[in-house]
């Protein structure tokens, strides 16, 4: 069998479950350890032998095109095709017809997968579907197997018959394009790839490959688990300036142009981007990711959090187990709580995070006055303005003005 060297990546969706982080960027461009999640997937594919990627873009496509270009920066070939309306996975695949030359890999762009497993999957008989085991299969499409063959696919069910779910990675020949031409709209008004797969299932020809490393990044709190994975594999690096009196323990990567001022204490693994100012007397705790051009100032403590580019947390702030968008500014003394008094799992907007320690999700360009308090499980939309001494608790839409 000829090696699989081409891959179609589905990256046209907005990622509504990721709001407010997708207000100004497509989901696949949300950074994990200071790289867009899509870049992690492309680099894994490259290591597995994929040479050419066709990215199906739509929402926020310009951000993807500008960042990746033709792929030469990261040593691959990248082409783009546009899915203007989100009419389902089969429609997204159909938009790439004619752009692949033979057997190909297809993956959702918002998942994480190791290079070893991509390479192993690409050696499967064709057609093949990647599956993964989960403890909450009711949130996904469920897969039923007999041996190494798929015998049924179930839509999201309250009583799933299996713990195996469709992981969003497929191995196809060009024949799949003939099959998707024959399907109609589903009950949801979309062209579903699962409808095309049912033909293979009825023929007994759809193989299953069980993944071990797969991770779905569906909600903002999943970002914490995902970036922890990458930080655990981080290589220490210092391209910035570290003043005397700074303590660095563990694996820490510091970007070019960044200054770590005296008295700061940094515990790895953590990553700090380019052109940041940290300190004096800042405390950066393990599994924290700080983007480019951020300011983490005097007597600020940050623990197990993701801070996107150009955010300023400059005076006497505490950020714990949170995801903070870009361009935010925290007034002096503003703090985020990350643990309930009853020690139960934190919910955000009624959705279970699965984490006993979780602070807040904060969108882009949110401005806090001084001495604000943000409760566990809060979600603050992009562009919100929060008055001094405010108590923030719950879910707030973009551009909300929050006062005491």
Automatic annotation (TrEMBL):
Protein name as annotated: Bifunctional protein GlmU
Q: Which UniProt keywords apply?
A: Acyltransferase, Multifunctional enzyme, Nucleotidyltransferase, Transferase
What's the EC number here? 2.3.1.157, 2.7.7.23
Q: Which organism is it from?
A: Methanocalculus taiwanensis
Which residue ranges does the record assign to the Mannose-1-phosphate guanyltransferase C-terminal domain?
266-395
Q: What family name appears in the similarity comment? A: In the C-terminal section; belongs to the transferase hexapeptide repeat family. In the N-terminal section; belongs to the N-acetylglucosamine-1-phosphate uridyltransferase family.
Task: Give the record's pathway.
Answer: Nucleotide-sugar biosynthesis; UDP-N-acetyl-alpha-D-glucosamine biosynthesis; UDP-N-acetyl-alpha-D-glucosamine from N-acetyl-alpha-D-glucosamine 1-phosphate: step 1/1; Nucleotide-sugar biosynthesis; UDP-N-acetyl-alpha-D-glucosamine biosynthesis; N-acetyl-alpha-D-glucosamine 1-phosphate from alpha-D-glucosamine 6-phosphate (route II): step 2/2
Which GO terms of the molecular function aspect are on file?
A: glucosamine-1-phosphate N-acetyltransferase activity; UDP-N-acetylglucosamine diphosphorylase activity
Q: Tell me what reaction this enzyme catalyses.
A: N-acetyl-alpha-D-glucosamine 1-phosphate + UTP + H(+) = UDP-N-acetyl-alpha-D-glucosamine + diphosphate; alpha-D-glucosamine 1-phosphate + acetyl-CoA = N-acetyl-alpha-D-glucosamine 1-phosphate + CoA + H(+)
């Amino acid at each position: 069998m000829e090696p699989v060297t081409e891959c179609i990546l589905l990256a046209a969706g907005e990622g509504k479950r990721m709001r407010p982080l997708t207000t100004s960027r497509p989901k696949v461009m949300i950074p994990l350890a200071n790289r867009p999640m899509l870049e992690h997937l492309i680099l894994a594919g490259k290591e597995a032998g994929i040479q050419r990627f066709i990215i199906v873009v739509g929402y926020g496509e310009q951000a993807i095109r500008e960042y990746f270009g033709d792929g030469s920066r990261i040593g691959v070939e990248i082409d783009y095709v546009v899915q203007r309306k989100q009419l389902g996975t089969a429609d997204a695949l159909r938009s790439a017809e004619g752009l692949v030359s033979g057997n190909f890999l297809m993956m959702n762009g918002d998942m994480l997968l190791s290079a070893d497993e991509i390479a192993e999957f690409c050696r499967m008989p064709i057609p093949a579907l990647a599956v993964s085991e989960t403890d909450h299969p009711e949130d996904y499409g469920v897969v039923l197997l007999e041996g190494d063959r798929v015998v049924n696919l179930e839509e999201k069910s309250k009583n799933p018959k299996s713990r195996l779910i469709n992981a969003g990675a497929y191995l196809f020949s060009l024949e799949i394009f003939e099959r998707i031409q024959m399907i109609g709209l589903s009950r949801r008004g979309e062209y579903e790839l699962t409808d095309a797969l049912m033909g293979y299932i009825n023929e007994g020809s759809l193989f299953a490959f069980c993944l071990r490393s797969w991770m779905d990044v569906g909600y903002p709190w999943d970002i914490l688990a995902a970036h922890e994975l990458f930080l655990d594999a981080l290589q220490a690096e210092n391209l910035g300036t570290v003043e005397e009196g700074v303590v660095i323990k563990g694996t820490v990567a510091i970007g070019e142009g960044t200054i770590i001022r005296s008295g700061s204490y940094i515990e790895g693994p953590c990553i700090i981007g380019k052109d940041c100012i940290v300190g004096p007397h800042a405390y950066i705790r393990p599994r924290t990711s700080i983007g480019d051009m951020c300011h983490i100032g005097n007597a600020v403590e940050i623990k197990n959090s993701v801070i996107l580019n150009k955010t300023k947390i400059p005076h006497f702030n505490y950020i714990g187990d949170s995801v903070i968008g870009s361009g935010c500014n925290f007034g002096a003394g503003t703090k985020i709580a990350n643990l309930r008094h009853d020690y139960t799992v934190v919910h955000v907007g009624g959705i279970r995070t699965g984490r006993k320690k979780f602070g807040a999700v904060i969108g882009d360009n949110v401005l806090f006055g001084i001495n604000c308090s943000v409760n566990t499980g809060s979600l603050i939309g992009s562009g919100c303005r929060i008055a001094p001494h405010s108590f923030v608790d719950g879910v707030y839409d973009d551009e909300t003005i929050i006062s005491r």
